[in-house]
C-alpha cells in the first residue's frame, strides 16, 4: 500500500494548491490512501465543515486535526457526524467526534487513523502516552495498517512516541511546527516515522503567517492579528509504502513542487 500524508494545510493558499494538485498527485504517485492534517486550513487557524468537505472531495481519505481543532465553533457538531475527520483522541471526553477511525481504501482494504496532541503547550486533557496503547490495540483488531498523526511541539516527544510504537503501527507522522524535518526513516521494527512533515501553504512567511506581522508581534510583544502569507506555496508531507502486514518498507519526505 502507498500512503501519502500531507502536512498542515495553512489558509486559502494551502487549500487551493491542495484542491488543484491532489487529484493528479494521487494518480501520478499511485496513492492508495491519503491523510491530510487540516487544522489550520481556515484562515490559518481551525477548520470549517465546508473546507473539510472540499479537502475530502479533492482526494483526502481522512483529515486529522490538532491544537486548533475547536477554533471554529461550527466544526463541533460536524465532528459528531463524520468518521473521516479525526480529532485528537486526548482532548476532553466531552468533545464530540472520534480520535481514531478505521476507513476503507478503494479496494476495500482498511486503514486506521489515530490523531493525538503532544503534551507540551498543546492543552490536551492528558498526554498522548496515556491513551495511545489502548487506541492502537483497538485499531489493530480491525486492520494491520495503523497511521498516527502526533501534533506536537517537541521533536523529542515525536521521536519517543515513534520508538514506543515501533513494530505496532505502520507510521508515526509528526505535525504542527510547519518546518519539514530531515529524518524520514523506517525504524527497526517496521514503523515509518518523520518528526515533522512540514506545511502545505505559503513558505515565504513565518510558518504560514505574513512575515511582517509575525515579526512585529515578536519584536514588540503586542497583539497583532495574523494573516496567511501568499508566496512560495507548496505541498509538503511524507510518502510511505507498507507491505500486507502493515510493516513500512519505505518512508521519504515529500515536497511539491520540488
Helices and strands in order:
Elements: E1 2-6, H1 11-29, E2 33-37, H2 49-58, E3 62-64, H3 75-79, E4 85-86, E5 100-104, E6 110-117, H4 132-140, E7 146-151, H5 155-165, E8 171-175, E9 185-186, E10 192-194, E11 201-202, H6 211-220, E12 233-242, E13 248-256
Parallel strand pairs: 1-2, 2-3, 3-4, 6-7, 7-8, 8-10
Antiparallel strand pairs: 1-12, 5-6, 9-10, 11-12, 12-13
Helix pairs in contact: 1-2
Can you offer a commentary on this structure?
It is a single chain. With 258 residues, the protein is an alpha/beta fold. The chain has a single domain, classed as Metallo-dependent phosphatases (Purple Acid Phosphatase, chain A, domain 2, 4-Layer Sandwich). 25% of the residues lie in helices and 25% in strands. It has helices at 11-29, 49-58, 75-79, 132-140, 155-165, 211-220; strands at 2-6, 33-37, 62-64, 85-86, 100-104, 110-117, 146-151, 171-175, 185-186, 192-194, 201-202, 233-242, 248-256. Helix 1 (11-29) packs parallel to helix 2. It is globular. The two termini are 23 Å apart. The model has no long low-confidence stretch (mean pLDDT 97).
Q: What would you call the shape?
A: globular
Helix content: 10-25%
Rg over alpha carbons: 17 Å
Proportion of beta-strand residues: 25-35%
For the record, the CATH architecture stands as 4-Layer Sandwich
Our count of domains comes out at 1
| CATH topology category name | Purple Acid Phosphatase, chain A, domain 2
The CATH class is identified as Alpha Beta
Briefly note the structural class of the backbone: alpha/beta
Number of helices: 6
CATH homologous superfamily heading? Metallo-dependent phosphatases
Mean pLDDT: 97
**Largest beta sheet, briefly?**
7 strands, mixed
Question: What is the rounded distance between the termini?
Answer: 23 Å
Q: Strand-and-helix sequence, N→C?
A: EHEHEHEEEHEHEEEEHEE
Number of strands: 13
